[in-house]
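User: Run a structure prediction on this.
Assistant: Running it now.
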Amino acid sequence: MNDKRLENINILAFQEDLLQWYEENKRDLPWRENNNAYRVWVSEIMLQQTKVDTVIPYFNRFMEKYPTVYKLAEADEQEVLKQWEGLGYYSRARNLQSAVREVVESYDGKIPDNPKELGDLKGIGPYTKGAILSIAFNQPVPAVDGNVMRVFSRVLHIEEDITQTSTKKLFEYYVGEIISKEDPSSFNQAIMDLGATICTPKQPLCMFCPVMEHCQAYAEGIQERLPIKKKAKKQQKKSYVALLIQNKQGKYVIEKRPDTGLLAGLWQFPMIPADKIVKQDWEQWLRENYGLDVEIKESCTSIKHVFSHIIWNLDVRKAITKHESLEDKRLEFVSLEEMKSYPFPVSHQKMIPFLEGK
């Protein structure tokens, strides 16, 4: 391991400057009211690929409804997904509940502070494990995510591509060497805050940085060039026709997505893959795939929804059917009022105002 980078930094002074700044400037966040391991865990799962401001109201509602591991463990999965509705990356919620159930069954409801046991729980990767062990249990374990890699790529002048697994291991090693052994909880949270508020991806506020004098990239004037990150693959585009199908009783057809894969377990309005099926075959495709006879109307809106790897282009259309019951077990007839209790992805939540001409 190349320790020349560590020779260029006064670790004790770095820790002191960082922790003093954190004590004076730390963000007031609801999961920081105490270092309860369950609250830390829930917050870290919610914060994956989601901004802090978005997470705060979700976290507060979630903790109010499921204040303990026991409450979450015994909850209905559909109810949990409904609480998660709008946060995206829904596998996080399913994995969290699955892991919490294991904590209740195997550890008497006590979240393990053992790295092996904690890391074996579903949905807990190296970063989440490090965050829980350091913040909740004050163990000097690195918690390395994109924020942390950005900070230390600049502080230590590391030019390796941060999308590579080997690079992440490199950062875990360096953070493990630099982390405060006396107060690892504050250290890791300080790095998170520093990356979020000062050492930002573009135009970092170096003049306000508490560790500026320790930063090798700043000394060389290359802070905005780091970290090095290869471009992500281009997102795949998919086109669908989403149907708001109503029967004479005023109920609408909704479909439950598969239990695995994208948006697993959520509900949506039936979608025709428009990339593969031409317009004149839409109604036949619905008969063959859902056993539904419908009359499709004109388009009422279009919606573009961007996932990390896919872009959905949705042509939303109303449709009518004479069916009063449904044979396909994926489908249900629901009223507008009943629909409120079903978890929908954001793209389909946007369609609901168009029901009944609203």
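The mean pLDDT is 93.
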